[in-house]
Specification:
The chain is an alpha/beta fold. It is built from 15 helices and eight strands. Helix 7 runs antiparallel to helix 8, helix 7 packs parallel to helix 12 and helix 11 packs antiparallel against helix 13. The longest helix has 23 residues.
């Protein structure tokens, strides 16, 4: 795997952040009279929030045909709907979780022209011009409100695409912890785990730097402490606020590093086995932590700030996941043990896997050995 060749580094993030309870009711100044489309879910609670935004400024269109893990075929239909508008939008407001934000970035990049957008995806081009985005995350996990990437799937062809480019950094990230109060147990767990993965993945990363590490340490320590408490007390406003801020910090950390091996491994697990993203990118973290240790002193120092003794860190993190009811055995998710070594090997050489600076051979052995052991979650499940 790659190593950091020099001490030089840089950090940049252009997203302006507003965090406040009730921030959803303070959007009019950010919209500033611009015609906009609203991307959100169709569920009643999101319709209520959409109405609160509309009372401040009416949208040109509401696009609420959002599925988990947005599909290219859906993006095509949504672009066709945009083409019917008599007035071109000047802004996209994204109200929802990661799938809404990914969809909003795709639509902003397309500017209603699906053919051009699709060609850019196929050629993995950076988006250089898009409609501006205001992101209102309703989950504490995606981090997409402060990054310039989105994930688009194509189930029919079995492929995953990244929509990316500097113009896709949202103009504003509006963090309103009250928007997550209605989030159910399972989505709270999954998105919280995704945020933890973002934080840790930015640490054992070839692109790490002192600023990203600072964000990652605070995010990881908060999530490890707060998420179990929140899962026992879902309506606790202070815990929701802490998780919202931790997810934001994790997003800022990986906005400059990208993700790494855990996310590389998660993609086929989600596409082929329907493992929810937050689970897919987190249940291998204990073994990845071990395979990331003892190689780079600066990485070890950061990980020790979070986990203490690295000799026991794998067991500590495994026990934490089990406390949350998360199995760490791939067979639990329907993965054929014969296929598992191949998936691990492929992930190490995936572009995200190449961001990792751990020991690939050690990781393969650790994950395969762990998969051969009986592993059943002991903790929370609802």
């Amino acid at each position: 795997m790659k190593t950091v060749a020099s001490k030089s580094w840089q950090f940049a993030n252009p997203v302006r952040i507003q965090c406040a309870n009730g921030a959803i009711d303070q959007l009019s100044n950010l919209i500033n009279g611009r015609p906009y489309i609203l991307v959100t879910y169709a569920e009643p609670v999101f319709q209520q929030w959409a109405e609160r935004i509309a009372r401040q400024a009416q949208p040109l269109m509401v696009i609420d045909s959002i599925r988990a893990n947005p599909d290219l075929d859906d993006i095509k239909l949504q672009c066709e709907a945009l083409a019917s508008l008599t007035q071109a939008p000047q802004l996209v407001i994204a109200l929802g979780g990661g799938s809404v934000l990914d969809t909003a970035k795709a639509l902003a990049a397309s500017r209603g022209d699906f053919a051009h957008f699709h060609q850019g995806l196929l050629e993995a081009e950076d988006v250089t011009a898009s409609w501006p985005i205001i992101a209102l995350p309703t989950t504490a996990g995606t981090g997409s409100e402060v990054t310039c990437w989105g994930t688009i799937w194509h189930r029919r062809s079995g492929k995953k695409y990244s929509v990316k480019g500097p113009s896709l950094y949202p103009e504003w990230a509006v963090i309103d912890p009250e928007l997550s109060l209605n989030l159910p147990f399972e989505l709270t767990r999954q998105t919280g785990l995704d945020a933890l993965s973002h934080a840790l993945e930015s640490i054992w990363n070839v692109n790490r730097n002192p600023v990203s590490n600072t964000f990652a340490i605070k995010a990881a320590n908060t999530i490890l402490n707060v998420l179990p408490k929140l899962l026992d007390d879902l309506t606790n406003r202070d815990l929701r606020r802490q998780m919202a801020e931790a997810a934001l910090l994790a997003g800022l950390a990986f906005s400059n590093t990208q993700t790494a091996i855990a996310h590389a491994l998660s993609y086929p697990l989600t596409l082929k086995y329907d493992v929810p993203h937050g689970i897919a990118c987190s249940f291998t973290l204990p073994q990845i932590l071990t395979a990331s240790s003892g190689i780079h002193p600066d990485v070890d120092q950061v990980l020790m700030t979070i986990f203490g003794n690295l000799n026991t860190a794998e067991a500590t993190l495994s026990a934490w996941l089990k406390r949350l009811g998360v199995a760490t055995d791939p067979e639990h998710y329907g993965v054929d043990p014969v296929r598992w070594p191949g998936l691990v090997n492929e992930a190490c050489y995936n572009p995200r896997g190449q961001n990792w600076n751990g020991d690939a051979s050690a990781l393969e052995l650790l994950l395969i050995r762990h998969a051969q052991q009986t592993d059943q979650p002991q903790g929370l499940s609802r």
